[in-house]
Q: What sequence folds into this?
């Protein structure tokens, strides 16, 4: 049996019945941008090193396109060996339908409860006390990415917070730049709105609405201010014509746009373009206002395959993904934070360090995917793209529709 040192160590320490090697597992995910592809290649490399084979099943078009494909393959009897979902409830119905492999034995043997932080990540994998997924990273969407070049070209300093960013827009426009790059997909509009909520509304409001589900707060004046701020931001993005998030990031990389509100996965694109945080670009968590991050991100689920050899390889892949080596290699390229604190992150760049500091300070909130059902999320995303694209949709009208959607969450 061909095994690497890493696999041998894991085998020895947990004595789990790993595959005899040479099993092919198709792994589906939506990581198709340059940075994402570089990151996922690290997982593939680590799995291949066990003697098994990672068969890459990248699905283009982003999560909203990929997830229905993944779900219909699993429910339609054509399951893959492993698949990405976001932390939260996206795979809950599949688990409840008995279609997903129970990983509790691996999780217990490897002490996942003791190593995974924050615990909410493992909670999101747990249904009726059993563990059905392996969290692989922490991704937060509340970041403003700024192009130092765009600001140098416009002859003004790089903003240090959201208000300065908004105030810088006329100078950027005068220099022929797009102030805010925004991709034309519902989840991107919703992401921008969520980041503005944390920045403008603050943590208490965010928690009231999203955790306590206080619909009076959702319909109230503080939340209206958030909608108004989002309406001002949509003006800055009015001339943005790109579709994918990484095309928008690319506009920041080249200096065509001043900034982009996007998750920390944007770092992967800057890294691939060999741009340096602090020199070529600036990252402002919490839009430089309220330095909170939400602990969203990615987890892998393993559909039942009714094949003991494949099942052993699936569990081995789960273990490999959580290994210290793979956590470091993958997350450094992905721009996400590892889910375990006991790894060496000496190589982290400035932005990742900011994220790590916020995580250590405990200034974290759960992600939207963790608190709302996939159906609610989808409806909110549809509303948000409409709101961001219709300059004349009044903030109060959008807010009223939003509250109705949240109220129907079940
Ligand atoms: C995932 C990230 C991914 C991003 C853009 C998010 O849902 O959590 O891993 O990079 O989508 O594709």
A:
């Amino acid at each position: 049996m061909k095994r690497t040192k890493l696999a041998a160590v894991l085998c020895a320490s947990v004595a789990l019945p790993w595959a005899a090697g040479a099993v092919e597992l198709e792994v589906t995910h939506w990581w198709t941008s340059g940075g994402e592809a570089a990151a996922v290649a690290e997982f593939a490399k680590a799995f291949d090193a066990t003697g098994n084979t990672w068969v890459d099943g990248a699905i283009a078009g982003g999560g909203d396109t990929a997830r229905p494909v993944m779900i219909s393959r699993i429910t339609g009897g054509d399951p893959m060996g492993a698949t990405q979902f976001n932390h939260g409830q996206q795979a809950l119905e599949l688990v409840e339908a008995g279609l997903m492999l129970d990983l509790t034995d691996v999780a217990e043997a490897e002490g996942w409860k003791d190593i995974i932080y924050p615990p909410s990540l493992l909670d999101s994998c747990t249904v009726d006390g059993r563990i059905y997924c392996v969290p692989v990273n922490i991704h937060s969407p509340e970041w403003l990415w700024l192009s130092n070049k765009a600001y140098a070209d416009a002859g003004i300093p790089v903003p240090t917070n959201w208000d300065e960013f908004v105030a810088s827009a006329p100078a950027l426009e005068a220099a022929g730049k797009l102030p805010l790059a925004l991709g034309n997909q519902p989840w991107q509009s919703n992401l921008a709105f969520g980041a503005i909520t944390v920045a403008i509304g603050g943590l208490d409001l965010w928690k009231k609405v999203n955790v306590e589900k206080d619909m009076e707060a959702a319909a109230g004046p503080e939340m209206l201010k958030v909608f108004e701020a989002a309406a001002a931001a949509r003006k800055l993005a009015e001339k943005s014509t790109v579709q994918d998030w990484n095309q928008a990031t690319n506009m920041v990389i080249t200096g065509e746009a001043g900034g982009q509100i996007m998750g920390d996965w944007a770092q992967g694109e800057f890294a691939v373009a060999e741009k340096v945080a602090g020199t070529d670009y600036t990252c402002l968590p919490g839009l430089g206002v309220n330095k909170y991050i939400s602990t969203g991100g990615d987890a892998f689920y393993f559909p039942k395959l009714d094949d003991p050899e494949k099942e052993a390889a699936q569990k081995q892949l789960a273990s490999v993904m959580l290994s210290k080596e793979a956590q470091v290699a993958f997350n450094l390229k992905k721009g996400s934070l590892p889910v375990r604190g006991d790894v060496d992150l000496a190589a982290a760049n400035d932005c990742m360090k900011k994220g790590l500091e916020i995580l250590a300070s405990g200034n974290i909130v759960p992600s939207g995917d963790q608190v709302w059902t996939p159906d609610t999320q989808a409806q909110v995303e549809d509303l948000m793209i409409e709101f961001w694209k219709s300059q004349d949709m009044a903030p109060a009208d959008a807010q009223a529709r939003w509250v109705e959607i949240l109220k129907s969450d079940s």
